[in-house]
Amino acid sequence: MTMTQGLSLALLVVVLVVAVWRRMNIGVLALAAALPILVLSHVTAAKMYASFPGDLLVLIAGVSLLFAHVERSGALSAVVEKVYATVGDRQLLVPWVGFVLAAALSSAGAFSTAPIAFLVPVVAHFGVRYRSSFYVSELAVVIGANSAGLSPLNPTGASVLTAAKRLHVHYSTWGLWAVSVLVAALVVLALQLLDRLRQRRGAAPVTPAPAVTTPEHAPEGEAPAVSKAYLWCSGLALPVFLALVLFAKWDVGLTAMALVALLQIAFRPPERAILDRVPWSSILLLTGLLTYLGLMQNIGTMKSIEGLLHHLGTGVALILVVAYMTALLCNIESSTLGVLNLMMPLVFTAFLGSGQLFLIVCAVCVPAALTVMNPVHVAGTLIIANSAREQQNTLFRRLFVLSVSLSLIVPGILGLVAAAS
Asked: Which residues cross the membrane (predicted)?
């Protein structure tokens, strides 16, 4: 490994440490770290920018804008209320409503933060009626949304696929999604059984905040769109989008943008309110990190890492180390998207050509998606904020213990399955 390659790797570690320490955007730090590498390596900026993931940027923005229309029009609220009305008082099914809704939205491409931010307060609203199911219902939303984010239509799943394509690696994208959703469902089922057992032993259930209301579809001071035509058209836009992407094989980002443009032209909701729903910070994180990783590949750092990793072998120890390291980083850094974009090039490099590659990808990605209820992350904070004030300290500890427990158990199980195959 040359001095410049070693420096690029060292700066990547510094970027991660500073991002966690100062709570800064990894993308900003990664682009700043690219400057000295460009100077020392004599790689042109134009060559580095060839790694800029423009397709992922369009995908994230397009799908986020489409979801914003679906939410603002009231179509999403109408579906949620209809589903809860259908479930009625069947308490055992209540947590699965949020799980299915969140997983469906993330699978269709909605950046997982969006369905979590919408559904967690909605679940708290219905939690007044379903008090004994509130805790598991909130967790089901978070776990379902993030785990289904490994869909190839979702920014997280698409970014994993992009890393694979850059290294000419192939794996089953929908297979990864299916494993992730299956593991997530088993975790939710286990949590539901454990929570019911706690309540039978006399433990008080976690309850929602007393004054929770359903979220507004527009910023304060602006009247949300109530046109039934807008509701129906935006609601139908999602199945049209899925049909065009899955069956006609149209580009995900451009298809979403086209539908967004039609909805905006036809119904003219406040454009600023729609644009505010795009996760610009995540876009900056993703584009900055991937551009820097592309620079590392241009100067040969990834090739040098590949050689070092091959000396270590591809056995069970290496699989477990990578899986646990990814889960640990996801507990520290709140962006699953950022962590997976950091780790997956190393995974694909280390296990290139391995017959166990698909299961190894599952062992790394699936646990990473399960730790999002950590109370220092946005999703965990939302759950706590929507719970009764007197229970928030206890809930903080429960969520932290749960996140750490999943990070210890799931990578080990999936890693051993991959190693044994």
From this structure: 29-49, 56-76, 96-122, 174-194, 236-266, 278-296, 308-327, 347-370, 399-420
What burial class does residue 372 get, using C-beta atoms within 10 Å of its C-beta: 0-12 exposed, 13-18 middle, 19+ buried?
A: buried
How far apart CA 2 and CA 129 sit, in angstroms, is 63
Q: Which of 353-359's residues contact partners 24+ apart within 8 Å by CB, and which partners?
A: 354/314, 355/421, 356/314, 356/319, 356/418, 356/419, 356/421, 357/169, 357/171, 358/171, 358/172, 358/175, 358/176, 359/414, 359/417, 359/418, 359/421
Query: Is residue 299 very low, low, confident or very high in pLDDT (cuts 50, 70, 90)?
Result: very high
Q: What span, in angstroms and rounded, lies between the C-alpha atoms of 344 and 341?
A: 6
Contact 195, 375 (CB under 8 A): no
Three-class DSSP category at 221: coil
By CB atoms closer than 10 A (0-12, 13-18, 19+), residue 113 is: buried
3-state SS of the chain: helix, strand, coil percent to 5?
Answer: 75, 0, 25
Q: What token pair was written down for 332?
A: 């520290």
Q: Taking the CB of residue 292, how many other CB atoms lie within 10 A of it?
A: 26
φ, ψ of residue 208 to 5 degrees: the values are -75, 165
| Tokens coding 346 | 């190393």
CA distance linking residue 148 with residue 155, whole number of Å: 11
Structure tokens at 326: 């990814």
Write the DSSP assignment of 43-105 as a string of letters. --HHHHHTT--HHHHHHHHHHHHHHHHHHHTTHHHHHHHHHHHHHTT-GGGHHHHHHHHHHHH
CB atoms within 10 A of CB 21: 8
Please, what is the angle between helix 252-267 and helix 54-72, to 10°? 40
Instruction: Band the pLDDT of 128: cuts 50, 70, 90.
Output: low
Please return the burial class of 63, using the count of CB atoms within 10 Å of its CB with bins 0-12, 13-18 and 19+. Answer: buried
Instruction: Determine the average pLDDT of the residues in 84-98.
Output: 85
With tokens 């997956």, the residue in question is 344
Q: Which residue has the tokens 């955007």?
A: 25
Distance CA 74, CA 228 (A): 9
Which residue did the predictor score with more confidence, 130 or 14?
A: 14
pLDDT of amino acid 212? 45
